[in-house]
Give the backbone structure.
Amino acid sequence: MADNWGFVLAAYGLAAVVLLSYWRFLARRERTKTPRARPPRARPGVSDPPAPAVSEPLAPTSGHPRSKPASRPPLQ
Amino acid sequence: MIRIVGGLALAALAAGLVMAFGVAPRETTQGNVQRIMYLHVPSVWVAYLAFAVVLVASITYLVRRLEAADRLAHASAEVGVLFTGLTIATGSIWGKPTWGTWWTWDARLTSVSILFVMYLGYLLLRGMVEDRERGARYAAVLGIVAAFNIPLVHFSVYWWRTLHQPPSLMKPGPGTMPGVIVAALLVNFAAFSLLYVYFVAKRACLLRREAEAA
């Protein structure tokens, strides 16, 4: 009987493609489901400006700067 | 741990290829095309194993309502469907040069196709039911019912007159194959089993993460 190497290669090639595709599917899905690690913060160097001191928690704002009540002109 | 199993599976698959192409002799009747057996038979073994795990995990889920058992059943069914598909495809490729046809409605081929479609339905059912707990319950029932097809597939070659040959290895009584062919087959059994464990562990881990994120 002829050896039919083409059929052997087709069977093994197909198996390789199927198994690799499933492995890639799992790996890709794992990447999308894993929360990304935050990039490490650079160490503050000599030339870096000092970080502003946080004195009190900030109240939620609309995003627009507001003047302090004492500096506002009285309503006419 | 999963990575170690993956590495072991990769090494075992490489060893399996060496055994199949380098160590196992050319079969006298079929020629080199018989080497497809080292891929086809371990694939169906993994499919049997996967669906047996689905059966046990489904019963466990119904009895004890363990989420982990449900995830194991889901992962194992998915990997089982993958390997059943591979079994059908490689069998078809092997059938063309040896039987002269890609496909025939013989008892083994038909019963394997039914098994494949049933577990494909199992996976579709999981995706269709929106309530997760209800979907898991329905899937567990289907996982138990579908498992009755496994002995039907295995013994179909004894119960009906088929074109497909009877089992060469998974049968009672003394073996008829030369030792070196059995050894090559066993190495590939081990490699495919490790690959199954790796895939199922990875998939179950992903399912847990998805459940936690939901």
